């Protein structure tokens, strides 16, 4: 009987925002500034942020994620007719450095560290953003690398961005598990050649991109269940 | 006194969907299939359609716009919990070939043809889609070229897509007026080097991309007002 042997996983690269770090507090803070409109502002802000990464990538007009995120906030507030003062903007942008870690992500990172699996973050965030959020969550030393697309000047899903993982770990993309809560990100990484896991926190249908993540689950607990049997290379 | 002379415009390239052709009937048809949910489905469908053009472009995974549009419809219906039968899908996709022309666009095309300005469509749509919609609206002969990104295998805002205009017209991008109802499209074309006009049909704020269209207005009438004084090269 033919069964596909589990691929050995030598390292894990995580998306940051929404995957390890809970962005929910942004909508809460936005709602304190704009009562009753916070969820709407946070949702449009996120859409515009991602739009701008893609437009700038396609047009070769890279700017760091912090700049793009700030631009997206300005546009979103204007589109919703919200008067965004400098104090609001600064507070909302600062919140990006103070997002908390999902409980399931904290548990999984603890387990994986004890298993001595090399871990990295591979994010659109620029280095100051990634360093701040990791430090503010006392995760220093957890990740072997904080891989920012800033070093290649183009955002995910560009191949140059995903190439950072194999380069940092010194192994093939297929030997790295790439974990993201964004289905498009898991699909982009799968196109690139990673073994991928989509944490479908929001219970969404899969993107219709003609590619499927190797694993899917609702939390990081299911990442652990997926990765543990794959950590040892199967017998030949 | 220094004044910037108006650039001479030698040709005009138009975006298709939402710019010349009115996509509103898609939401109406969707609402016949899914009463009370049509606007929501049409809006998400559009978002996903554009998302997929960008993801596939960034990852080098081009598929024709008709395929992407169909994929986006499947995902959107699923995300909204709508049971999309084959008959619904076929009818909604067919509607793309039967969109009407905005009244202001019809007037402007008539005037511009009488002025003997070379006109083109420069669209993400694939050639069969563009040929069908032009033919169904009896616009055969109006456009010197139907420029589809399909010939370069990457969607707007990639430079390869915008390069089709200067190549077809045999003049510099700055001598071509690129007209779109999508601000991101006008911005992408401006980055490329076109003289650009954003028809802001929906009254949205400008995208915060660090670039500004040369002209902005609510309808194609304002495109005419913008272009007519620029059709003759200014005295040296």
SSE layout:
The structure is a homodimer of 236-residue chains.
Chain A: E1 11-14, E2 21-22, H1 24-33, H2 38-58, H3 65-79, H4 86-95, E3 100-101, H5 103-114, E4 119-123, H6 127-136, E5 145-148, H7 159-162, H8 164-169, E6 176-180, H9 183-192, E7 195-199, E8 215-217, H10 220-227
Parallel strand pairs in A: 1-4, 1-6, 4-5, 6-7, 7-8
Antiparallel strand pairs in A: 2-3
Strand composition percent of chain A: 5-15%
Number of strands of chain A: 8
Number of helices of chain A: 10
CATH topology of the largest domain in chain A: Rossmann fold
Largest sheet of chain A: 6 strands, parallel
CATH class of the largest domain in chain A: Alpha Beta
Q: Structural class of the secondary elements of chain A?
A: alpha/beta
What is the molecular shape of chain A? globular
Outline the low-pLDDT stretches of chain A.
Answer: none
Give the % helix of chain A. 40-55%
Oligomer: homodimer
N- to C-terminal separation of chain A? 15 Å
How would you describe this protein?
2 copies of one chain form a homodimer. Chain A has 2 domains: 11-21 and 100-230, Rossmann fold, CATH 3.40.50; 24-95, DNA polymerase, domain 1. Chain A is built from 10 helices and 8 strands. In chain A, the strands form 2 sheets. In chain A, strands 5-4-1-6-7-8 form a 6-stranded parallel sheet, with helices on both faces. Chain A has a two-stranded antiparallel ribbon with strand order 2-3. The two termini of chain A are 15 Å apart. In chain A, strand 4, helix 6 and strand 5 form a beta-alpha-beta unit. The first copy, chain A, has 236 residues and is α/β, with parallel strands linked by helices. Chain A is globular, with a radius of gyration of 18 Å. Chains A and B meet through helix 2, helix 3 and helix 9 of A and helix 2, helix 3 and helix 9 of B.
């Amino acid at each position: 009987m033919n069964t596909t042997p589990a691929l050995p996983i030598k390292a894990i690269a995580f998306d940051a925002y929404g995957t390890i770090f809970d962005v929910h507090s942004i909508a809460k803070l936005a709602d304190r500034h704009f009562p009753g409109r916070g969820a709407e502002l946070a949702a449009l802000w996120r859409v515009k942020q991602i739009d701008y990464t893609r437009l700038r990538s396609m047009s070769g007009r890279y700017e760091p994620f912090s700049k793009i995120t700030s631009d997206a906030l300005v546009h979103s507030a204007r589109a919703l007719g919200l008067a965004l003062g400098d104090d609001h903007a600064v507070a909302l942008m600062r919140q990006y450095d103070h997002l908390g870690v999902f409980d399931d992500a904290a548990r999984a990172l603890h387990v994986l560290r004890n298993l001595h699996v090399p871990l990295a973050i591979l994010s659109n965030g620029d280095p100051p953003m990634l360093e701040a959020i990791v430090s503010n969550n006392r995760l220093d030393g957890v990740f072997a690398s904080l891989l920012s697309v800033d070093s290649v000047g183009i955002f995910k899903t560009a191949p140059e961005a995903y190439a950072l993982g194999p380069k940092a770990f010194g192994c093939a993309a297929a030997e790295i598990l790439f974990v993201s809560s964004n289905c498009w990100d898991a699909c982009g990484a799968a196109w690139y050649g990673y073994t991928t896991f989509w944490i479908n926190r929001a219970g969404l249908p899969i993107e219709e991109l003609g590619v499927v993540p190797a694993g899917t689950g609702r939390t990081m607990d299911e990442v652990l269940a997926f990765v543990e049997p794959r950590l040892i290379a199967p017998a030949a």
